[in-house]
Design brief:
single chain; mainly beta; OB fold (Dihydrolipoamide Acetyltransferase, E2P); five-stranded mixed barrel; flat
Length: 98
Amino acid sequence: MEERKAHRKVRTGTVTSSKMEKTVVVRVTRYDTHPLYGKRIVKASKYTAHDEANECRNGDLVTIGETRPLSKTKRWTLLEIVRRAPVFDLVGENGGEA
């Protein structure tokens, strides 16, 4: 008998918060068209996703996939990091002194 894998939803978005342990908040934007006026409207949703290795940072572009409920709000898991956010050094060459 052949086993079928359930088709799970996949979303791509930007990490907006990575302060929790093994959890990130991902903002996924989509574009809808207004039914009467035809203008494109930006709509966004926030998903809490499981990050097992704590490897995400704010600003990373990530792909998340649907999974079983892991907690009260976590139903998504991190699949891959598409693009890393740049890291800026805020301290100058002279150690922050003027």
